[in-house]
């Protein structure tokens, strides 16, 4: 989470105990938990309100879908998949065999 490993968490906990003291630390942890809960409720409410305003077409909308980086990444991936599909179709078209009764192409200048 946030690129913080176990050793960093241990150092943060040790500094917190030294700064706040063991008596006030549980109170600060409780307040931090309440703050995170309120933040989550706020974000969920904002998402639900946005869904309600946009209508039923966006009932599965997630806030992370509005991140410009993910939008650009999504369009790039779609464009790459379309290009690959077109290329595969072109290869299949070129590699197809002759149909029954079809005359193979003949180039007079090549022989």
Helix % is 55-70%
What's the number of extended β-strand segments? 0
Oligomer: single chain
- What does the overall shape look like? elongated
Overall pLDDT metric: 83
Derived structural class:
mainly alpha
Number of helices in the DSSP assignment: 2
What is the strand content?
under 5%
The tally of structural domains comes to: 2
Secondary-structure element string:
HH
Largest sheet: none
> pLDDT below 50 for ≥5 consecutive residues: which ranges?
none
User: How widely separated are the two ends?
Assistant: 69 Å
Cα-atom radius of gyration: 30 Å
Description:
This protein is mainly α. It has two domains: 1-59; 62-94. The chain is 69% helix and 0% strand. The chain contains two helices and no strands. The longest helix has 49 residues, at 6-54. The mean pLDDT is 83.
Features:
mainly alpha; 111 residues; 2 helices; single chain; 69% helix
Describe the structure concisely.
The protein is mostly helical and 111 residues long.
Topology overview:
Elements: H1 6-54, H2 68-95
């Amino acid at each position: 989470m946030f690129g913080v490993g176990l050793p960093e968490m241990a150092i943060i906990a040790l500094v917190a105990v030294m700064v706040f003291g063991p008596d006030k630390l549980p109170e600060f942890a409780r307040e931090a938990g309440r703050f995170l809960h309120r933040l989550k409720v706020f974000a969920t409410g904002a998402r639900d309100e946005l869904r309600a305003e946009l209508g039923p077409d966006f009932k599965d909308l997630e806030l992370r879908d509005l991140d410009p980086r993910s939008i650009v990444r999504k369009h790039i991936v779609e464009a790459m998949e379309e290009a690959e599909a077109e290329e595969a179709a072109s290869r299949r078209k070129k590699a197809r065999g002759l149909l029954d009764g079809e005359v193979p192409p003949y180039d007079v200048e090549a022989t």
